[in-house]
Amino acid sequence: MTTLAAWTWMQGNGEVDLASVTGRMAGVLAAYLLLTVAQRFLSRNQIIKSVNLQLNLLMLALLVLVFLKPVLALMNPHVGNAVVAAAIFLGIAIGLKLGDVLIFDVLARWRKRPQVPLVMRDLGRWGLAAIALVLIVREFFPGVNLNVLAVSSLVVGYIVGNATQDTLGNLISGLALNTERPFQIGEWVTVGGHTGMVVDTTWRATRLRTKADDYIVIPNSSIARESIVNFSRPTRNHGCYLTIGVSYETPPNKARRVILDVLANSPDVCAEPKPAVYLSGYGDSAITFTLKFFIADYARQDPIQSGVMDRLWYAFRREGISIPFPIQDCRERDAVRDELAARAAARDSIRDCLAGVDLFQSLSPAETDRLVADSKLQMFAAGETLCRQGEAGDSFYIIHSGRVAVWVAGADGNPVLVAHLGSGAFFGEMSLLTGEPRSGTVTAEGDVEVVCVSKRDFAGLLEVDEGLAGKLATLLEKRQTERQAKMADSAGAAGIPETSVPLIDRIRHYFGLV
Ligand code: CMP
């Protein structure tokens, strides 16, 4: 349309070749698009970004002047003058903006001067730009009466502005958004109560994609009026807050330790800034804690928070911390009897579990009873680490239900999967019996219940049964040989370190039996 209109208009001004005009205009458009794309890639710089719009227009004007010179020569000389005047004005506007940033941002920050308010800076810049505009109009259009021009522009502006208030408002706000750039495509924002990822910003509206995977189109004029929360700035990190209540029997420091441990081991929770736990209140039935931690991906906030809450439940259960809840129905309950019944049930589970382990087949009934009484039943959530390679370990685990994976660091430092262990299998025996650091990392593949035996309980058994250390050593040496054979198959896995001291002596020495 534009091309055709230009052509029709020029018919009255001289001879032109339609094909050549169309070709040149297409050339200008292509060159402009190319330069815009190049500029998008090159201008990561914040200062360049702030004059993006002016730079674009200046580029367009220069392209028109260079490529469409013959066409302009055919037109009314005012057209060419207008393009040159616009280019000069845009150049001055860019210079003013860069000068503004240099003086009030860079230099002021460098010399530690107080910041000049933005409005004052803008007014100053606009004043200088207005003077430049008057001078340019005078130079290029000497016949124009500036007074008449000012009054008629005001009247026309008033009429057009009233007639197209909404559209104009959106357009101007769109311009402002493009210049100010309070958000960019791909960033997560909340505007006017709507939260979503910015998909695009046109002259009319901005489109957000919500967590429910819906689009929300917000007119730019509304955005200009609303306050904007940008979750992706100043950094991609976003702080999350969760609250959880624990029973009054739990010492706050214990609860804090357990919560911090869960946060430190939760994937997707940033290590820096460090998570924090605040005791936020003493409620009717619970001590309330507020957890503050950072995530690097706002889009995954819900699953990450849910993962943290899951792990807290398991960790609290393992540590004997209860999460109180308001009880609606009134029941008479013998708390002591219930507690005893729960303990008896746990003991039965432990006894069943120990009965299936070859390591304990030689224990007398009395020794087994003692072991059952001292052991603890613990639950771990899928993905949790039960013991970590290189750490000190003084407990031994028998799997009651579920499955775990055993990982050993390879020569390149990457973990190599060496075994899956299921119900009835045991692990953690090497550290417990020799005092050496854990030889592997064990993680829960699903929810896992394990019987945990401490070094103290084992020491008691070794004291009453003198032959037990020997039996254990034989059994463990057999397992160790089997494991080393398996590990030789998995390329790169660093094996369980061999020592010249026999295992039985290492066990006796560690438990002080020599
Ligand atoms: P410990 O060294 O105390 O802690 C890690 C445990 O992982 C280790 O005891 C064994 O029980 C177990 N483990 C280490 N390497 C292997 C392996 N190659 N196969 C099976 N289990 C292993």
Notes on the structure:
With 514 residues, the protein is of the alpha+beta class. The protein folds into four domains: 2-144, no CATH class; 174-230, SH3 type barrels (Roll), CATH 2.30.30.60; 238-319, Alpha-Beta Plaits, CATH 3.30.70.100; 343-495 and 502-510, Jelly Rolls, CATH 2.60.120. It is 52% helix and 18% strand. It has 18 helices and 16 strands. The protein has helices spanning 2-11, 18-42, 46-50, 52-67, 69-74, 77-110, 118-140, 146-163, 165-180, 220-225, 252-265, 301-319, 335-355, 365-374, 429-434, 455-464, 468-489, 503-510; strands at residues 188-191, 194-201, 205-209, 215-219, 228-230, 238-246, 276-282, 287-295, 376-380, 385-387, 395-401, 404-409, 415-421, 426-427, 441-444, 448-454. Strands 4-3-2-1-5 form a five-stranded antiparallel β-sheet. Helix 2 packs antiparallel against helix 4, helix 11 crosses helix 12 (301-319) and helix 13 (335-355) packs across helix 14. The longest helix is centred in the N-terminal third of the chain and has 34 residues, at 77-110. The chain starts with a helix and ends with a helix. Residues 1-14 have low confidence and may be disordered. It binds adenosine-3',5'-cyclic-monophosphate.
